[in-house]
Amino acid sequence: MSRNKILNKVTFVFLYITGIFAFLQVGNTYAYLNDGETVKDNSFGTGTLQIELRKVNSDDADSVISPSNSITKYFEVENIGNEEFIYSLELKDTPSDNDLCGEVDLKAYLVPDTGEAILKYDGKLKNFAVNSDGTDNDLLMSLGDVIHNFTFEYSLPNDADSALSLSSCEFDVIAKAWMPEFSYQNAHWDDSTVTDELDSGNWLIEMGFETAETLKDEDDGNPDLGFCAVVTNDKSAEDNTAATQEIKWNKVENTQKYVINKFVFDDPNWDFVNSTEVLLTNPNLTESGDIMTYVTSVDAEGLYGYYIQAFNSDEELIGATTPKETSFTCTFEVVWFEGGDVVINEVMWAGSHEHEKDEWIELRNTTDEEIDLKDWIIEGAGPDSHEMKLTGKIPANGYYLVSHYPTDYDVGNEKAAVNNSIEEDEYRRTGSESMHLEENGEKLILRDPVGNKIDETPDVENGPDKGWAAGEAGNYGHDDTSWRSMQRIELDDSDPGDGNNPDNWYTCNHDECNDDEYWDDNDGRDYGTPKHRNLANQKQILVLEFLLNNTLPEISLDLDETTVGVGSTAPVEVSVEIVEQESETSEVPETASPPDIPQVIIPEETEEEIPAEEESPTEENTTPEVEPSTPEEAEEEVTVQ
Hints:
Strands 13, 15, 17, 18, 21, 22 and 23 form a seven-stranded mixed beta sheet that branches. A six-stranded mixed beta sheet has the order 33-30-25-24-37-38, with no helix packed on it. It is built from four helices and 43 strands. β1 and β2 (43-45) form a beta hairpin. It folds into five domains: 2-45, no CATH class; 51-199, Sandwich (Immunoglobulin-like), CATH 2.60.40; 206-334, Immunoglobulin-like; 339-536, Lamin Tail domain (Immunoglobulin-like), CATH 2.60.40; 551-566 and 582-641, no CATH class. It is mainly beta. Keywords: Membrane, Transmembrane, Transmembrane helix. Pfam families: LTD (PF00932). Residues 422-481, 581-641 are annotated as: Disordered.
C-alpha cells in the first residue's frame, strides 16, 4: 500500500509540472465572436466588424427612367469597424410582383480612387448580386481601405411595354460583410441596407381617353380629350342582352391598328377579359379630326375599364392610354335595373301653404343595394321638356328627395314648408330642368340611364284630384284648407305594386302627416312625410289590404257619414273609428275579413234579390245593416255603424 501511494504522488507531481510548462509556452489566444471580438494574451479585448452602405445624392435624382433615358445613382460602402472583411451586394426581397422592377436593367460599377471603373454586374435589377460567392478580392476591405464607391446605371429596354409608363419600383439593396477566414455560405457577421426607388416616365404618345357620355357632358368646346373620372352608362338593347359603349381617344399619327384591351373589376382586382385588334378599316372605328371613336359592347353587368394601344406598320408600340389596369381613370359600368327597383313614392304636387311652387317628389329604393341615380330621368316634372336628370345616390331601402326649393329656403315671399332638418338630395328652382308640376295633373315617368322605364304614376284625365290619383290642393287665404301629398301604398317593401294603377295611391290624411317632424309648422295645413315612410292610417291599411287582395264588386263604405269609394278612380280615404278586436296574429285568413272590420258579404251572381242578412249582436248590441240590391244597381251599399 505504501509503495502505491508513493507511485501516485510521483505521477501527480509529474503531471503538474508538465501542465505548468505547457501553459508558459502559450502566446496569443484568439476567440472569434460576433462583430469580430478578439482575445490576446489570455485577457479579452474586443474588435468590431461593421459595414455601412449609403446612397449618395445624384445629379438626376428627380429624373425618371424610360427607354430613352437612363438614371445613374451612387452608393458608398464603408468599413466603420476595426476589423477587415469581405462583402457582397445583393437585392433584398426581390419585388417579383412589380412589373417595372422586373424589366429594369442594371449596370453596377466599382469606382476606385484611381483608374477606370470596374463593371461588377450587368443584368436585370431583379437578379442583382455581386460577390455572393466571396471570391472577388476587389470587395475585400482592409483597415486602411475604408470606403468603396459604386455607380449604378438603371435603364429600360427599347421595346419596353407602355404599361410600364408612369409606374414605380421600390427595392432594397443589402451589403453583407463577413471575416475573410469564413466562407459566405457559413456566416456573415454584419449587414447594411438602403431603400431605393425608380419612377418611370411616359415615353409614348399619351392618348387622352374618355367615354362619349363624358365628352358630351363637358360641353366646353375643347376637342382635346383628357382623363375622365366618372362612371357612365350608355344605351343598351331593349332585351337587356347587350350594352353599347362609345370609347374616344386622341388619334396617333402613323398608326396601322389599335388594340382595345378590356378589363372587368372583380373586387379588389381588375381581371383581363380580352384584347381586340382594330384596324383603321374597322366599321366600328371612326375618325373625326384628331378624335378616334370605337363602339364596343358587353353582355353582362359589371364595371369595365379599357387600356388602348397604338401600333405602327412595323408592329412597334407608338402610343397608349395610361395607366393600365391598376387604377383606371375612365370606366364604363353596365347595370340593368328592374322595374320597381326605385319607385316614385310620394308627390307633393300642389305645393304647400307657404307657396304654390313648394313642390317635391320623393323616390324610394326598394332594394338592399345603394343605387347611383346619375343620369336617371324623371319625365313630366319640368317646365318645357318636362324632364329632370338626376345626379346623386339613393341609399339601400332609403329615400331621395327632389324639390323645387331647398328645404331651408326663405327668401322674400318664397319659403319652403318642409322641416329644415330634412335635407333635400337635390333641388331644382331655376333653369330648364326646374321642378314644375301642373295642378291639373301630370304623368311622371322614372327612367334609368339607358332609357328603361322603371316606374310611373297614373295619368288620371279629368280625375277628382285635378288629374292626379290622390293629393289635395288648398286655397290660399283660407286657413281652414290644407295641402296634402299623394302617397303610394306601402304594403310590401319588396313589391311596391303598379305605380300606374290609381288604386295604389291615396291622400296623406293621417294626423301624423302634419307632425313637426316633417314640417316647420304643424298647424294642420300641410300633410306629407318627406324622406320617411308613408303614413296611411293603420285601419285604412287593413281595409286596403283586404280590398286589394280580394276580388270585390264596386262598393261604398258609409262610415260615420263619410263615404269612401273603392274600385273607382277616386283615392281611398278612411278616417273613422273602428273597434279593434284582440287577435294573436295580424294575418288575415283568406276566408275572413280583417279582425277590426265587420264581415263584408259578397253576393253571388244571381238575378234574384239577395235576402237581408240575419242580425247578429255586437258588443254594443248593435246590428250591421246590409242593404239588399239588385244586379242592375250601380253599386252595393254596406253601412257599418
